[in-house]
Amino acid sequence: MAHDDRRLQVLRAIVQDYVSTNDPVGSKALAERHDLGVSPATIRNDMAVLEEQGYITQPHTSAGRVPTDKGYRLFVDRLSGLKPLSVAERRAIERFLDGALDLHDILSRTVRLLAQLTHQVAVVQYPTLSRSAVRHLEVVQVATARLLLVLITDTGRVEQRLVECPADVDRDDVAELRALLNQTFAGAKLADAAGLVPDLLETAPPQLRRLVAAVGAVLVETLVEPGEDRLVVGGTANLARVAVDFSGSLRPLLEALEEQVVVLRLISEVDTGGAVLVRIGEENAHEALSGASVVSVGYGSGDHALGGLGIVGPTRMDYPMNMAAVRAVARYVGQLLAES
Amino acid sequence: MAHDDRRLQVLRAIVQDYVSTNDPVGSKALAERHDLGVSPATIRNDMAVLEEQGYITQPHTSAGRVPTDKGYRLFVDRLSGLKPLSVAERRAIERFLDGALDLHDILSRTVRLLAQLTHQVAVVQYPTLSRSAVRHLEVVQVATARLLLVLITDTGRVEQRLVECPADVDRDDVAELRALLNQTFAGAKLADAAGLVPDLLETAPPQLRRLVAAVGAVLVETLVEPGEDRLVVGGTANLARVAVDFSGSLRPLLEALEEQVVVLRLISEVDTGGAVLVRIGEENAHEALSGASVVSVGYGSGDHALGGLGIVGPTRMDYPMNMAAVRAVARYVGQLLAES
DNA sequence: ACTGGCACTCGCACGGACGGAGTGCCAGTC
DNA sequence: GACTGGCACTCCGTCCGTGCGAGTGCCAGT
Predict the structure, then answer these.
(1) How far apart, in whole angstroms, are the C-alpha atoms of residue A3 and residue A14?
(2) Same-domain pairing of B168 and B25
(3) Any idea what the CATH number is for the domain that residue A54 is in?
(4) Were both Cys, which of A266, B64, B201, B250 would link to A308 (CB 3.0–4.6 Å)?
(5) B102 → closest Cβ in A160, A239, A243
(6) pLDDT digits (tens, 9 = 90+) for B210-241
(7) In this structure, are residues A11 and A74 in contact, taking their beta carbons and an 8 Å threshold?
(8) Which whole-number Å values give the CA distances from A24 to A2, A51, A70, A317, B300, in the listed order?
(9) Are both B235 and B285 inside the same structural domain?
(10) Residue A268: helix, strand or coil by DSSP?
(11) Are B104 and B65 part of one and the same domain?
(12) Which nucleotides on strand C sit less than 7 A from a protein beta carbon?
């Protein structure tokens, strides 16, 4: 119907204006700035309906309208695509990320890049261990009864753990252990690797048994423990700029970012195949994020995701732009990790 | 002289009161809360002198007095010691740091601990490479003409670099290279290690020459490049609590923390033997820190420092407490790193 | 050298008035 | 039936004037 359609245009216009001006938007201003082809009075009627349906609200009687979470949701789902990045922005992505030295460098550049592109807080998750594969296992003897186990994955991540051995360890045994470990695990997905440990125990030569048991235990712990999933956070300075959107108190949000609970949101979406996920305001279960939106997407090489990255900002944000930026950066990072 | 002495007591009282209340402190309140043994009128005279000398100032006529940077400096240098930590605080340090898994874990725990103890932003520098020694060098062949060089230091830091080789590499050569590298570098201070590369080139068997040259180049780069000095920052949420001290705008400070220029301040003091360094307000050359103070100290095992750690907060902070906390944490971290 | 008293200065909180932006509703028009 | 112009109303934000309280500087007295 003609009405419904125009009403959605009105909603879109409200979201766009409100995002750019931060002022509740009134019917008159709307009629002036957008070619809706109707008078303010008509727009007022549409607004009344939109308000009744819960898409917009008034901060107080006789103020302009402001989108609700539900309004942003509709806007994101049906009223906006992804705003294509400018050439300058695309070039910035390449310039920023090329020449990274190692994994940590890639991720910290990514987070700075995202923060700069979107002017929001950027969050990047380290590649999940379980989705990558073992490239190499290294064993270094650091004391007579102490080994350092270093796990190198095909995503360039390096994990290290100290292993306390039950007894003094022979040099030759270390070499043999190293060979045995690599023979067993090289190329295995980390998710599967833990399951190989029992086999390893069986096939190990007798004199290595106890050693393998100790190392195996630590290895399993390293492989399955997802608590160590690290996060890189950047751009918190951008929060100061939009402090007004958070009713003055940045505290809970900063705390949440440090607690790294946000990562749970980022993680819970890796299965979707490359779609950008937007969580708006109250949709974020966590209370500290009730005034914030999270735009996230999984990155990875090829079909499976290695981790998530995204941004956190006020619900009043430029969704089309941010969604495009997040997706573009994720794609580029995915490529980069596939190469190295 | 009696006057001078009492004037300093007055300054100390002003700093203490102002730090705890955040209100400009007046002569009457001062006389009530402290046993200075004189009347408010006398205190007023002292205050007038202190103001003339530049130790305190009035926000506006007929308000109380507030310490200047110079006033805080005098307070720190001559009027306060380090407030001993409570038993609970000491215990918290142990509880927090014991059981750390690896270097990154130690440092991120440290930064959280410091932030929690001081209620300020905490900053910890990764151990400087040049001060630590090589524990092990690992070479992993990741493609026919591509090696991954992993450097493990005695402080538990792991650095990794890809090496592009001039030609395909033989498996046996990799093993020989590994042995050669460890034989040459094991135990060497990283600062000295770069100097050993030429020797290595001379003594290497002929068939390894080209390989050693490629690896050596990357190794030198890794050893001398101090730009990679990483920083762990935490407790930024604490800034929100003291936002009022920064005239409302946290922006520059947050930006400075992200730019990691603060590390320069932290680094520039490692030579001093364990003394806590305090930089107050304008003493920090960087403009964004003009309203902030930095309390820092070097940490390390034994005589030489491995890196710096400290806190950043408003000039209006509890210096005795924060200095004590920073020193205690640095000592504990130093011990911890010496053990592992 | 210190003290009590006193006049003076300001900043700040309170409160009323005002203007403006925006709304809802209604009668009129195409 | 959908849209429009007009109108009365509401309410927020701002401005301004006032009063109060805290604090000071100075001075005369002990």
Answers:
(1) 16
(2) no
(3) 1.10.10.10
(4) A266
(5) A160
(6) 888 988 888 888 877 654 567 888 888 888 77
(7) yes
(8) 26, 13, 16, 14, 56
(9) yes
(10) coil
(11) no
(12) 1-5, 8-11, 20-26
Nearest CA in chain B to A242: B251
**B119 and B60, same domain (yes or no):** no
Point out the residue among B142, B230, B234 whose CB comes nearest to the CB of A258.
B234
- Partners of A176 on chain B (C-beta within 8 Å) are none
Whether B113 and B240 share a structural domain: yes
- CATH label of the domain that carries residue A208: 3.30.390.60
Rounded Cα distance between B104 and A139, Å, is: 19
From the CA of A36 to the C1' of C30: give the distance in Å.
19
> B138 and A150 in contact by Cβ < 8 A?
yes
Give the residue whose CA sits closest to D23 at C1'.
B62
C5 C1' closest Cα residue: B41
- Asked if residues A56 and A17 have their Cβ atoms less than 8 Å apart, the reply is no
| Nearest residue on chain B to A240, alpha-carbon basis | B251
User: Sign of dihedral through CA atoms B164, B167, B168, B172?
Assistant: negative
CA distance B72 to B79: 9
- CATH at residue A331: 3.30.450.40
- For residue A150, list chain B residues with Cβ-Cβ distance below 8 A: 138, 150, 152, 158
Residue ranges making up the domain that contains A186:
130-224
| Total tally of structural domains belonging to chain A | 3
Give the residue from chain A lying closest to B149, CA to CA.
A152
Are A236 and B236 a contacting pair at CB < 8 A? Answer: yes
The per-residue pLDDT for A323 is: 96
Same domain, B123 and B241: yes
Mean pLDDT of chain B: 86
First-to-final CA distance of chain B? 54
Q: Model-level pTM?
A: 0.83
CA pair distance A95, A73, nearest whole angstrom: 33
For residue B156, give the nearest of A231, A230, A149 by alpha carbon: A149
- Which pLDDT tens digit goes with each residue over B260-288? 777 766 666 665 567 899 999 999 888 88
Listed residues A17, A48, A78: the one ending a domain:
A78
Chain A CB contacts of B235 under 8 Å are 258
B260 and B121, same domain (yes or no) = yes
Answer whether B147's CB lies under 8 Å from B140's CB.
Answer: yes
Structure tokens at B331: 């000592």
Nearest-CB residue to A138 (from B138, B257, B258): B138
Last residue of a domain, one of A171, A192, A224: A224
